[in-house]
Amino acid sequence: MPNTALRSDAPPSVGQDRPFGWRDKFGYLFGDLGNDFFFILTSSFLMVFYTDVFHISAATVGLLFVIARLWDAFADMAWGRFIDTRKAAIHGKFRPWILRMSLPLVVSGVLMFISIPGMSNGFYLAWAFVTYIAWGTLYSTVNIPYGSMASVITNDPVERTTLSTWRTMGAMLAGLVIGVLGPMIVFVDNKISADRMFMAAIVFGVLALCCYLACYKLSQERVVAPEITKEKVNLGSTIRGLVKNKPLISILAASLIMLVCTMLSGTVNTYLFKDYFGNTGALSMVGLVQIAATFLAIPLAKPLVARFGKKEIASMGMLIAALSYFIIFLLPDPSVTQYIMMSGIGMFGMGFMSIVSWAFVTDVIDYHEFLTELREDATVYALYSTARKVGQAIAGGIGGFAIAAVGYNAAVEKQTQETLHGIFSLGTLVPAIIYLVVFLILVFFYPLNKRRTNQLASDLSARRNKR
Question: Taking every annotated instance into account, which residue ranges of this chain make up the domain Major facilitator superfamily (MFS) profile (predicted)?
């Protein structure tokens, strides 16, 4: 299957003879490595920085995060529509925006962690709102073109899975670096240091900037949209096409459900190990095992997709994850070791969904073009990102509500048996049910199996070559 589908009047640098290869894979890895150097830094330490250094209440910080996520959802869609109305430049349609906007993004990120002695609490509150929302908005200007770019680096369905795999590796590497080095840098005597936090922001900001530059230099756009798709189109036509896009709706539903599960697990796991197992030291071990399990899935993803297809291996992975957590729930009085082992198997299965998730989005973009003859990579990707941002805003407090619902009482030293059983169910039975629902969505509602995905790529290639 050809890796290019080019118009004769394409800009001269787009679609050069260099075939898709290792440079593109490393380039795409560096893009998410750059994104997550700062995204994970803020996710891990910004709230404690705001509460302990700026002395903003946790409730106010939570409100800020909800407002920012809702604003980011709007920013994603607005920026996606803006990019789709631009013509491809000599270096492509998406890559130039990564280069242009990466420096403002990094600078705004560093500004979030500036602590100015002598300022009032009101000043710090205003500073937090302005800088955090500005950073989130600028993050959209880099992340939307980066995510959209995967669909134009190659049109081969298997190679797109490779890009999704390398993107996942970039995110995991950033998580490992910040997870290991971050606490060592920013904490002194078990308290966050304002000066060290600012130093960490500068260090990871510079690293992020280098990664964005590497992404720009190493990757290359090859698939060029037909001229008709670059004209200003009616938003109503786009919306009608999106509503008819069954693969998009299916993946949005699956992703939102997975997002709720991830946020719930992130909150519940602390209580599961602290109160049910009575062993918080094992939290780091379960995290390490789950990351290692995902890494084990990475080299298997491409050959399995080539043989069976993305839908097929993702759905099978979700079934493995569901069964693993069902088994934990059914075990009589499970130990920490049993939980870690079975959750590692579950993460191995879920890893396949995580690895191919971004490749699903590129196929959905192709399907949108097939339905509408409109190539709107950034708009479709922005809609996917927008839905996730709205989901994050809505699901942000779900873990707290769930813990309260099972009767957790922070004032007592030991929780009741009913509460402990509720925490255990939240950490095992609920993920099992959610993973099973995602499995059913993929099997019965997502229509792009291996045969239809390959046929879609062939049909679009033939259509473009006729123009």
Answer: 247-467
